[in-house]
Amino acid sequence: MESTSNTTYAIPYSRLTVWLVLLFAFGIIGLWLAFTPGGVLGKADAVGYAICHRIEVRSFVANGRPLPLCARCTGIYLGVMTGLGVFAASGRLRAARLYSWQVGAVLFLFVAVMGIDGLNSYFHLFPGFTGLYEPRNWLRLTTGVFCGLTLISVVFPIFNQSMWRNGGDRVSPIGNLKELAGLSILAGLVVLLTLTQNATILLALGLISALGTVIVLTMMMTVAFVTATNRYRSYTAYPEMALALLAGLAMAITMIGLIDFARFQVTGTWGGFVF
After folding, report:
1. Cβ distance 270 to 45 under 8 Å?
2. What φ, ψ does residue 76 adopt, rounded to 5°?
3. pLDDT per residue over 20-52, tens digit each?
4. What are the two backbone dihedrals, phi and then psi, of residue 90, each rounded to the nearest 5 degrees?
5. Which residue blocks in 62-100 are alpha helix, DSSP H?
6. Is 211 part of a structural domain of the chain?
7. d(Cα 233, Cα 216) in Å, to the nearest integer?
8. DSSP secondary structure letter of residue 8
9. Contacts of 77 (CB under 8 A, 6+ apart)
10. CA–CA distance from 243 to each of 88, 130, 148, 237 (Å)?
């Protein structure tokens, strides 16, 4: 006989809560869609506008327009989406344990390398600074992709620990160094695909990276929502999470929209910062 934890459904939200979430979600998402640049790429630009400097010289350009995110941020969220794709393909969508210390050490190294490259790149904004080496977009992209693997390897287990009634599956999304090596090879292929500079490929990857941004923010905001509404570790199936995920998405769009609004008030343009 199956245990109660596997057969008992989560306590449903009250009708008032459901209506409040629906009204808030469709209202805020509708406002954001109405007041941001038109088209799919315009919406992706608005996502990038909230989290990224979008300096044109530090971004990949397709058909004369910069991608929604700079080279580094594009890399980070392509790394996120690569990791999510691998976790799904390997049947670890409920993985809720962090990695071993060996895997963690390598992931920390990924972050450290991006930090060094990021500081070197930042200081080159100041006239006369020679730095350690000349910054390159391919370096920004590469270090970003591997940092993105680290980001999703932390956020994803925390999300699962917070959502599933049994705390999720007691496995890590990256089980060992061999799996990390395989994931890293795939990430490297994503880098090479980006560096083809094919306009169609670049635009597709730009949209994917913007989507990755929204997904990460939604996961984080969903955890905040279930914690605030006392639904922490209360779900047994994905359909039960629908309202919580919608609330998390609405909260993510709210944050993006507020930053969009504030930045536009200061700069008066949807373009990147100019130095």
Report:
1. yes
2. -55, -50
3. 999 999 999 999 999 999 999 999 999 999 999
4. -90, 5
5. 71-89
6. yes
7. 19
8. P
9. 69, 148, 208, 209, 210, 211, 212, 213, 216
10. 22, 52, 27, 13
Structural domain count, the chain: 1
- Residue 8 maps to a domain: no
Exposed/middle/buried for residue 101 (C-beta within 10 Å: 0-12, 13-18, 19+) = exposed
What's the confidence (pLDDT) of residue 265? 96
**Structural contact between residues 241 and 9, judged by C-beta atoms closer than 8 angstroms:** no
Place of tokens 């969009």: 260
- Output the pLDDT for position 228: 94
Per-10-residue mean pLDDT of the chain, 275 residues long, equals: 45 89 97 96 97 95 95 98 97 94 96 95 82 90 98 97 94 96 97 96 98 98 96 93 97 98 95 82
Q: Quick one: which H or E segment has residue 146? A: helix 137-163
Identify the CA nearest to 32 among candidates 49, 46, 45.
46
Please give the span between the terminal C-alpha atoms of the chain, in angstroms, as a whole number: 66
Q: For residue 15, is it within any domain?
A: no
Q: Which domain holds residue 82?
A: 20-267
> Is the separation of the CB atoms in 10 and 165 below 8 Å?
yes
Place of tokens 């895997």: 103
Alpha carbons 72 and 146: distance in angstroms, whole number: 10
